[in-house]
């Protein structure tokens, strides 16, 4: 953690297609409100015309330029792990990092995504049924959200991912971590239609629905009125999935809350100062719809 007596912080966001992300202005505004200088840069792999293989070089450059820390988003949340010196218990358990502290020559990876989703869910979908939930996507953000769902009390979590082996790995890790809930409380879907028919919740954790990847992540006929539907994409806030689910009559949760609350915890880790989450929420709304990002 960085100590609060510091008065200047240089931060960055590493990911692909992040130029209009709300994360930098959220952090900068809160730094202003807290009375210190905080400069937050976007490090866009698409603009640099590189991929995650450039992470070692980018980390060295960040250290040499005096960066305090970095947020990490798609497609780097898992690829960055071999470049780090240490992982927090959450990041180690989840196998995904979205926040990196750079201090005293060491790189320490954290995961604030799971807490961000949990806080958003508790506020946005109070009383939602948790007996059976289907989650689409088991990548870096998906692993964090799955962990959050189990901490929220989901009794059966069904994972569906194009990479079946990845989903199986996440399921096995969760079953070990939450064994008190009973054997096999997390499993990989073998028949999505059957699993959706009995589910009372759907969580979407793939890039589908983002500006670059429009459309629905599953056949529309699998949605039904008894579902609540939660999204982690927040540009646009009203994805096609949420729009369709709302039309059917489902309770919905957009990805904005997760984006804000993961930033709240990252801000604390970077600066040592607990931010005003209500103020950050208000600023997120003020930034309007002209921003894009998955949960950074």
From TrEMBL:
Any single biological process term in GO: shikimate metabolic process
Pfam families for this protein: Shikimate_dh_N (PF08501)
Top-level taxon of the source organism: Bacteria
Keywords, ordered alphabetically: Amino-acid biosynthesis, Aromatic amino acid biosynthesis, Oxidoreductase
GO MF annotation, one: NADP binding
Coiled coil feature spans: none
Domain Shikimate dehydrogenase substrate binding N-terminal, residue spans: 13-100
Protein name: Shikimate dehydrogenase
GO cellular component: cytosol
InterPro entries assigned to the protein according to its UniProt record, in alphabetical order: Aminoacid_DH-like_N_sf (IPR046346), NAD(P)-bd_dom_sf (IPR036291), Shikimate_DH-bd_N (IPR013708), Shikimate_DH_fam (IPR022893)
Gene3D superfamilies listed in its UniProt record: Leucine Dehydrogenase, chain A, domain 1, NAD(P)-binding Rossmann-like Domain
Annotated pathway: Metabolic intermediate biosynthesis; chorismate biosynthesis; chorismate from D-erythrose 4-phosphate and phosphoenolpyruvate: step 4/7; Aromatic compound metabolism; 3,4-dihydroxybenzoate biosynthesis; 3-dehydroquinate from D-quinate (NAD(+) route)
């Amino acid at each position: 953690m960085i100590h609060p007596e510091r008065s200047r912080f240089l931060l960055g966001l590493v990911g692909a297609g992040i130029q209009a992300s709300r994360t930098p202005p959220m952090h900068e505004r809160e730094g202003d409100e807290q009375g210190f200088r905080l400069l937050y840069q976007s490090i866009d792999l698409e603009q640099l015309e590189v991929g995650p293989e450039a992470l070692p070089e980018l980390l060295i450059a960040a250290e040499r330029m005096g960066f305090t820390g970095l947020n990490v988003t798609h497609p780097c949340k898992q690829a960055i792990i071999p470049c780090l010196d240490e992982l927090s218990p959450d990041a180690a358990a989840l196998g995904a990092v979205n926040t990196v502290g750079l201090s005293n020559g060491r790189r320490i990876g954290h995961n604030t995504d799971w807490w961000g989703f949990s806080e958003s869910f508790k506020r946005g979908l109070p009383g939602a049924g948790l007996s059976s939930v289907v989650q689409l996507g088991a990548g870096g953000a998906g692993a964090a959200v799955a962990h959050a769902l189990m901490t929220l009390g989901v009794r059966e979590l069904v994972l569906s991912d194009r990479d079946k082996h990845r989903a199986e790995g996440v399921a096995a890790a969760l079953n070990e971590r939450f064994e008190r809930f009973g054997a096999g409380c997390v499993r990989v879907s073998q028949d999505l239609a059957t699993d959706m028919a009995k589910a009372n919740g759907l969580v979407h954790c793939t890039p589908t629905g983002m500006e670059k990847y429009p459309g629905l992540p599953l056949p529309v006929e699998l949605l039904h009125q008894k579902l609540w539907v939660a999204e982690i994409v927040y540009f646009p806030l009203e994805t096609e999935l949420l729009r369709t689910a709302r039309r059917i009559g489902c309770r919905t949760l957009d990805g904005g809350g997760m984006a804000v609350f993961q930033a709240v915890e990252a801000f604390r880790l970077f600066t040592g100062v607990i931010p005003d989450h209500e103020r950050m929420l208000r600023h997120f709304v003020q930034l309007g719809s002209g921003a894009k990002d998955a949960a950074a």
